[in-house]
Amino acid sequence: MSYRSCIIRQPSQLQQSLATVRESLKSFDAAPFAKGCLAVTGIGASYEAAVAAASELQRRGRRAYAPHAVDLMKPGDPADAIIALSAGGRSIEPVTALKTHASLPSVALTSEADVPLAETAKASIIFRSGEDATPSSTGYTASLLAAGLLVDKITGPCDTDWDTLSEQANRIILASAKEIARLSSIFDKRRSVDCVGAGASLGTAGEAALLIREAARIPAGAIDTLHYLHGPMEPNDDQTAVVLFGDGREVSLAQAMADIGCAVLLVTTCDIAATERMGVVKLPAVKNEIARAILEILPAQMLAAELSDRAGLTDVKFRYRQTDTKIKAE
């Protein structure tokens, strides 16, 4: 299945995964996760989803953070419980992390049940994200969806309308396709792309950078918004690009970057006019940071697909596949 077709399939996939997660949560005991500090972890794209999940837990008053799974592979006292994300459920690092801290309550969020991470964790939530492409699209957004409903189960429901999320996603994909098509020529052949955001949007920025590296083979990196102002933006010029996620300092920063010649994409809930060098995709106002993370990654996915096409890399496979990152099936 092609990367672009998987992106477009996400609204319907989110609706299907929503029913699956709700069913899976019926038997989940949230009591071991009700108090103390929660470590939300993963590796690769799943780590970026963990960043968004930890940020929403913090917004709701919980002590939570997002350590890399690699940092949990050695013994220690990292938290009172662990939430581990991995769409495929076979990444060695989060499985090792749970085995290392086997005495702690743990829950795995995976696409299927019969995978090592789900079998290692004390409990598991299944979301069945369906067929995915390279790089991941449905696996990432379904992981976030499962994390969002899990947070509701742990902390108590909020006013998030998960049932309308797929409709919102469809509208953003359509709007993104139009704006990215307009921007494609100015983003073409940029030597690097900075992806910038804060809080949950730092996770989105991390995933956006990963997508651009994987799909278009353009050097890209993620930086916290305020940290970006303290030096990392210094190399920017008319040969670089910036993708920003947010409604605060990100807005004026996007305009400033466009003024110096950068190609810019701003994903925001603010009413900001696009310019020749700055594209804007407007999001609906959503308080839940995980729900927002699902919506704001969609323009980045479309940008990565467009840059991939323009580089002649449509649906090519990874050049540097590793043999020691996954637990092989029996």
Give the topology.
Elements: H1 3-25, E1 37-41, H2 45-59, E2 63-65, E3 81-85, H3 92-100, E4 106-110, H4 116-120, E5 123-126, H5 138-155, H6 165-187, E6 192-197, H7 200-216, E7 220-224, H8 225-228, E8 240-245, H9 249-259, E9 263-268, E10 278-282, H10 289-310
Parallel strand pairs: 1-2, 1-3, 3-4, 4-5, 6-7, 6-8, 8-9, 9-10
Structural commentary:
The model has no long low-confidence stretch (mean pLDDT 96). The chain has ten helices and ten strands. With 330 residues, the chain is α/β, with parallel strands linked by helices. Helix 1 runs parallel beside helix 5 (138-155). Helix content is 45%, strand content 15%. The strands form two sheets. It has a five-stranded parallel beta sheet. It is globular and about 55 Å long.
In brief:
This protein is α/β, with parallel strands linked by helices.
Number of helical segments with 4 or more residues = 10
Q: What is the terminal-to-terminal distance?
A: 25 Å
What level of helicity do the residues show? 40-55%
Order of helices and strands: HEHEEHEHEHHEHEHEHEEH
Which regions have little confidence, pLDDT < 50, spanning 5+ residues?
none
Secondary-structure-based class equals alpha/beta
List keywords for this structure.
five-stranded parallel β-sheet; 330 residues; 10 strands; single chain; 45% helix; alpha/beta
